[in-house]
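Changelog note: in this version the structure field was regenerated for every chain. One regenerated record is shown below for reference.
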Amino acid sequence: MKSIWFRRILLAAVAILLLAAVFPALKYYRYFSSHVSTDDAYVDGTIGLISSRIPGTVIKVFVSDNWRVKAGDTLVELDPSDYQVQVNGAEAQLERARQTIDQLYAQVEAARSGLTLAESQLRQARIDYDRAKALKAQGVVSAEYYDQATTALRVAIATQGLANHQLMQAEAALGTNGEDHTRYERPVVQQASAALQAARLNLSYTTIKAPFDGIVTRKSVHIGHRIESGQPLMALVPIRGLYITANYKETQLTDVRVGQPVEIEADIYPGYIYQAHVDSISIGTGSAFALLPPENATGNWVKVVQRVPVKIVLNGPEPSDKPLRMGLSVEVTIDISDTRGPLLTSTLQHDLGTRGVIPETLRKAPDEGTQNYHLFTPSQQQRPSDSQTDSAPANADPPPASGASPK
């Protein structure tokens, strides 16, 4: 009797447990059928290599490894002596070019005065010639006097032609004739001015500054080093603007679309979830862009599941107490329940096209306010048959906040 009741109670308990497990199992089934995850994902970003535009000798270094700098902060200073000498020489050449222009103007004025004098002498010679011709016809003057007047006229005509050619030569040396406000707008002055600007630019390049906010790393420059143009001196990692590169299997990307929401958990901060979205999907697999791509047409072929990089951007800046660092391992989960987004586009490119600039949200501190990223809402997302268009819909709703509460 006890055995029968025990069996009934045991069966009832098993039935209750099975019924209780149905709902969690259904929930997890729906979750895993609408989400794809991978732990082959890492924090990525653009590393700025700091180098010099000119060769020189380092006289000051203002930073060290792992120092935080702001845009415009001085990093390295080169010896400016040689380039200051070049600036002084260029300034002297510019002044000399202006003096040359002044001399050419003076030559033009002198040539004009000479032409005026020659024209006056020609008029007087014509008057003398006409008078001599009339007097000779009357038999008042001798033939010698007439010949002298004729010769003087010919000399005056030649002198006037010579003066005219001298004026043309002086104006040609000066260039196009202009007023005083364009006095120095001449090729010789412009060439000297360009040389001076280049010398001043080279002098300014002796001070190497940070192009953006970031952390200094891999510093290899020290005081006294002789560096060449383009030689890497250090690397600068941006504080904001990092993103996630998730390498999904090709079999997982069937329903992945640009703009789908993403949850990110970094190994360094277990239990904390970053909210993000799919920014873009690579046009090729990782092996397609490898240094030595596979040669599948030779030898024995073994099929290997390929992985495709997916770029994931945070919806906003990460919290100040949980900053991401380049190379950190993360686990990425994409919600693929809505598959009407585009395949070949980028949300940042869409913002660039609509706003004219790429949003600077990820470079801002959390207390400076958030700037919404573009996401594709269900009403604006494309149909699966149209998902391969390059255009992204406009006026999308903003995504959720960047950080969520711990699990």
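Spot check on this record: The radius of gyration is 42 Å. The CA atoms of residues 179 and 259 lie 62 Å apart.
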